[in-house]
Amino acid sequence: MKKKMILSVDTGIDDALAIAYAIGQQEMELIGITVSYGMSIVENTYRNTKKLVELLGAQVPVYMGSAVPIVRPGRDYKLAGSKIHGQDGMANQFGDYEPEDVAGAVVEESVDYIIDSIHTYGKDLVLVTTGPMTDLARVITKEPGILDQIGAVYSMVGALAAPGNVNPYKEANAGMDPEAVKLVLETEPPLTVIGLDVTRKTLMSFADLKRWQAIGTGRSDFLAKLVEYYLDAYRVMHPYLKGCALHDPLAVGAALHPEWITTIPMHLTCVTEGEADGRTCENLEKCDDTDYHTCGALFVDSAAFEENFFETVENVLAGQAGA
Ligand code: CA
Questions:
Q1: Bridge partners (DSSP) listed for residue 204
Q2: Is 238 a catalytic residue?
Q3: Interior CA angle at 180 toward 14 and 284, to 5°?
Q4: pLDDT tens digits, one per residue of 160-216
């Protein structure tokens, strides 16, 4: 029997790529997608995800997640729209949501959905997170200990040995809700941190974009427009990469093929104050504890991942696959 996957996103351009990858892959059954605030307000990220799933021809239920972090006030997106993802999270292709886009959705319905799915599938369930850890923190708060029952969690979050991408300490997903990251990591679920240490070693180049632009379907045109916007931002902000990193898709890839990443068992935490606020690092309180449940990925077989990612997503974009 195939393992079940839940994808927790904050869509977001690289979330869109992760969703296309998760829809196209055949190794696991994608049973649901949860969406929190992150790359835009939750109403927009939810709408983005629903529209994308529909465009890609998939029949996957989408659940609305958290609107704000567990402790800190929510960000004012009107003042701080994303230069990398656009104000709406989708390269400004959708704009602000309309009431009908979120009809029937309830903020934090994702929390019960994840809890119920763990009860149903237990060790056969794999959770992949590519946004803030807020929903996962709320799952733990609502039902402490429940994550001990899940098969595995793969999270695009943090930077262990690598510098951050918001500042030298802070990676973007960790920085949106450091208290949630601290709570989740210190709970020590069977979780692998897929941080900037490995995601920065993956690449989508301008040549890859040209290939997508040439596919010639509605799906490929839409995804290519997103990636073009993303690559243009990367060219200005991270010119050393020569393209864009495949941050969120790698979390899906690591869940499907753990053999592509090299991990080290670690007790982890997240700094929640001072200059290093948002930094993920070793939990010094547990230096002498040899019972490890979490680990950090520090190396990746980028070539194996990229080959599988592009083949899978290009099949979806050409209309030849879709859950
Ligand atoms: Ca994301």
A1: 244
A2: no
A3: 110
A4: 999 999 999 999 999 999 999 999 999 999 999 999 999 999 999 999 999 999 999
